[in-house]
């Protein structure tokens, strides 16, 4: 069965149990570029055992439960007392240490900074509860995560060479420090959802960090996120990255031919004329099964565009369009068959995952295992952000995949996975006029100090971020004097987070646009650290 690994905001880019909420989690992609442990220092994890399960408990008769939150402490570049601390924020997946493949690493060397990384509650090995029941997931919110970050910053800042055994013992194993960060300036870094957290940390806890870099941050909650498909369509047209109008047209026609062929038989997808590479793995007896199938077809394009030229060995937009526009194809459907066969199939994987029950079963698994992330992330999507990537709207080539609707991708998924009856979208504000997350954080209206917001124009998530450009997806928003927008031409999700040589082995050198972005980000960080 062809599988797609989960992109948050997914990519063994194959066919898979795919959730219409992103391709691969960005943390998994960042970790895929990490070095082996002997290539850098201090990669053993610590656990902060003074973390609070509920920072906002109103029960005055009992103290909140304490739990162990994984973090990394890398001091090989640190200049000691008074030198800065760079906080690498974890998100919707297991968190690893910083590596030399990150641009932050390069900045840490330049500024002699201590690097600390904090894993997000409920992900990786950071478990504030015994399991992931819906009752326990009530403690999985961005608001709690921000409070975790603020408390952790206070902890690290309190430590010094002469710290008491009690303070040092708040981590397991006990943390040994060579200097004090009490007078250090902090800068936070995050990409994708952690980019949101980095930005919101500066808004909600402004004194905790001097500045922040929130890369590819989808700050605007959006229940019906069909704009994702629109940006994927734009990327398929963009000649700078190997797209073309012809490629877009072939995809649009192939989607229509595939949907018609699949839905004119009972069960769906049983036509003998369906190419082998596009056959469903299991019989599709309902619209929900059809969604599982069509969302995987859509997912191959999602992941390719979202991480274009950022995943070693993965197909690029240019690769897909090269096959799709090959004159040898007898039809658009034949071109799609050739594309899937070449880039997403294997000797053992020869079908498209098509079982709703299998898909929803993963979301219903309440057990922690150190790597599972989908139940947690979809919970956050259902309750706070939406982000459900549908094929509604008419300005993209995937409109024929009608099962990828908000009714299924949002409502059915949230109701069946978590038992939310009558689901109507993310939580609303007190007066019901907008999403609660918009009320809490201001959506794209980010009025703070020392905030840098990089985005790539080929990243589908940039349509929910602050880009202040002119065009189809953009709205100009007010900025403060010390806020900076960095809009990077021809790049995908979180491209600015990688060091200049991160993709050299794949032949993908930094473009002039990326070099410019790194220069701006570097200048901003230096400005944040000035006395």
Give the arrangement of secondary structure elements:
Layout: H1 26-32, E1 46-52, E2 66-74, E3 85-89, H2 103-111, E4 114-118, H3 134-137, H4 142-158, H5 165-168, E5 171-172, E6 186-191, H6 193-204, E7 211-215, E8 222-224, H7 227-237, H8 245-263, H9 287-306, H10 317-324, H11 332-343, H12 356-363, H13 374-385, E9 386-388, H14 406-418, H15 436-441, E10 451-456, E11 483-488, H16 512-529
Parallel strand pairs: 3-4, 3-6, 6-7, 7-10, 8-9, 10-11
Antiparallel strand pairs: 1-2, 1-5, 2-4
Helix pairs in contact: 4-6, 7-8, 7-9, 8-11, 13-14
TL;DR of this structure?
With 531 residues, the protein is of the alpha/beta class. It has 16 helices and 11 strands. Residues 1-16 form the signal peptide.
Order of helices and strands: HEEEHEHHHEEHEEHHHHHHHEHHEEH
What do the pLDDT scores average to? 91
Indicate the structural class.
alpha/beta
Which term fits the overall shape? globular
**Uncertain spans, ≥5 residues at pLDDT below 50?**
1-8, 10-25, 33-40
Tell me roughly what share of residues is in helical segments. Answer: 25-40%
Classify the beta-strand content into a percent band. Answer: 5-15%
Separate helix tally: 16
Strand tally is: 11
In the sheet with the most strands, the strands line up as 5-1-2-4-3-6-7-10-11
The biggest sheet, with number of strands, parallel, antiparallel or mixed sense and barrel status, is:
9 strands, mixed
């Amino acid at each position: 069965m062809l599988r797609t690994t989960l992109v948050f905001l997914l990519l063994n880019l194959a066919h898979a149990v795919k959730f219409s909420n992103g391709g691969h989690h960005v943390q998994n992609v960042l970790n895929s570029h990490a070095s082996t442990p002997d290539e850098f220092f201090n990669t053993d994890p610590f656990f902060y055992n003074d973390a609070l399960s509920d920072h906002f408990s109103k029960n005055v008769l009992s103290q909140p439960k304490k739990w162990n939150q994984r973090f990394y402490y890398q001091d090989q570049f640190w200049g000691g007392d008074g030198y800065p601390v760079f906080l690498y924020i974890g998100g919707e997946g297991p968190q690893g240490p910083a590596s030399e493949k990150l641009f932050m690493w390069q900045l840490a060397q330049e500024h002699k900074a201590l690097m600390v990384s904090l894993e997000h509650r409920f992900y990786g090995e950071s478990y504030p509860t015994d399991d992931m029941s819906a009752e326990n997931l009530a403690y999985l919110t961005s608001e709690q995560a921000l409070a975790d970050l603020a408390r952790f910053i206070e902890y690290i800042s309190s430590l010094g060479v002469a710290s008491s055994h009690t303070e040092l013992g708040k981590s397991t194993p006990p943390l040994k420090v060579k200097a004090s960060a009490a007078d250090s300036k902090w800068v936070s870094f995050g990409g994708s959802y952690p980019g949101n957290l980095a930005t919101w940390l500066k808004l909600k806890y402004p004194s905790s960090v001097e500045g922040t870099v929130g890369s590819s941050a989808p700050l605007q909650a959006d229940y019906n996120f069909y704009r994702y498909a629109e940006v994927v369509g734009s990327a398929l047209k963009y000649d700078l990255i190997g797209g073309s109008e012809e490629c877009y047209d072939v995809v649009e026609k192939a989607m229509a031919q595939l949907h018609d062929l699949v839905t004119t038989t009972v069960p769906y997808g049983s036509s003998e004329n369906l190419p082998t590479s596009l056959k469903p793995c299991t019989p599709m007896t309902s619209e929900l099964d059809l969604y599982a199938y069509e969302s995987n077809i859509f997912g191959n394009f999602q992941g390719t565009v979202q991480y274009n030229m950022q995943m070693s060995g993965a197909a690029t937009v240019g690769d897909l369009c090269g096959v799709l526009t090959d004159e040898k194809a007898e039809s658009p459907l034949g071109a799609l068959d050739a594309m899937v066969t070449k880039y997403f199939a294997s000797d053992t994987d020869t079908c498209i995952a098509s079982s709703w029950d299998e898909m929803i079963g993963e979301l219903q698994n309440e057990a922690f295992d150190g790597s599972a992330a989908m139940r947690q992330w979809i919970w956050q999507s259902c309750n706070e952000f939406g982000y459900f990537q549908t094929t509604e709207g008419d300005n993209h080539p995937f409109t024929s995949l009608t099962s990828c609707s908000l009714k299924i991708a949002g409502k059915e998924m949230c109701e069946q996975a978590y038992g939310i009856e009558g689901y109507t979208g993310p939580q609303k504000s007190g007066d019901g006029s907008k999403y609660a997350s918009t009320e809490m954080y201001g959506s794209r209206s980010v009025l703070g100090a020392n905030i840098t917001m990089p985005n790539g124009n080929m990243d589908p998530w940039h349509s929910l971020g602050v880009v202040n450009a002119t065009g189809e997806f953009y709205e100009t928003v007010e900025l403060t004097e010390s806020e900076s927008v960095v809009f990077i031409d021809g790049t995908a999700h979180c491209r600015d987070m990688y060091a200049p040589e991160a993709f050299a082995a794949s032949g993908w050198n930094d473009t002039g646009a990326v070099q410019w972005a790194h220069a701006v980000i570097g200048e901003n960080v230096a400005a944040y650290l000035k006395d």
